[in-house]
Amino acid sequence: QVQLVESGGGLVQAGASLRLSCAASGRTSDIVRIAWFRQAPGKERERVAAMTWAGELPAYADSVKGRFAISKDNAKNTMVLQMNNLKPGDTAVYFCAARRSITGNYNIWGRGTQVTVSS
């Protein structure tokens, strides 16, 4: 099994930065691709950023391109989402997720961390 635990959320003002971390443990050798999702109240879950477990082929939602960066600390098995120039519209619960296949649904999820951006 694989376990994912997020950290780093909080309350910030618009224009500030936050760094989210997702620590992976267990059978991490099974992971092929990892991602950050977010869900705001009353809205559908949105994939924010994704990359391979090796830290390659990053992809971003249009809403965060140029502001967010996904990366991985291989030594610590930790995925990072650096969020800059935050906007009130970025307010959501952020989840990290993983999957064991190149394509298909993400089926391993963390519990989420709240990010709130005030105007």
Order of helices and strands: EEEEEEEEEEE
Query: Residue-averaged pLDDT, rounded?
Result: 96
Radius of gyration over alpha carbons?
13 Å
Globular, elongated, flat, extended or rod-shaped: what is the shape?
globular
Largest sheet: 7 strands, mixed
Report the structural category. mainly beta
Percent range for β-strand residues = over 45%
Taking pLDDT < 50 over at least 5 consecutive residues as the criterion, the unreliable ranges are: none
Number of E strands: 11
Total of DSSP H or I helical runs spanning 4+ residues: 0
The CA-CA distance between the termini, in Å, is 40 Å
Topology:
Layout: E1 2-7, E2 10-13, E3 18-26, E4 33-39, E5 46-52, E6 59-60, E7 68-73, E8 78-83, E9 92-99, E10 108-109, E11 113-118
Parallel strand pairs: 2-11
Antiparallel strand pairs: 1-3, 3-8, 4-5, 4-9, 5-6, 7-8, 9-10, 9-11
Structure description:
- Strand 4 (33-39) and strand 5 (46-52) form a beta hairpin.
- The protein is mostly beta strands and 119 residues long.
- The strands form two sheets. Strands 2, 4, 5, 6, 9, 10 and 11 form a seven-stranded mixed sheet that branches. A four-stranded antiparallel sheet has the order 1-3-8-7, with no helix packed on it.
- The protein has no helices and eleven strands.
- It has strands at 2-7, 10-13, 18-26, 33-39, 46-52, 59-60, 68-73, 78-83, 92-99, 108-109, 113-118.
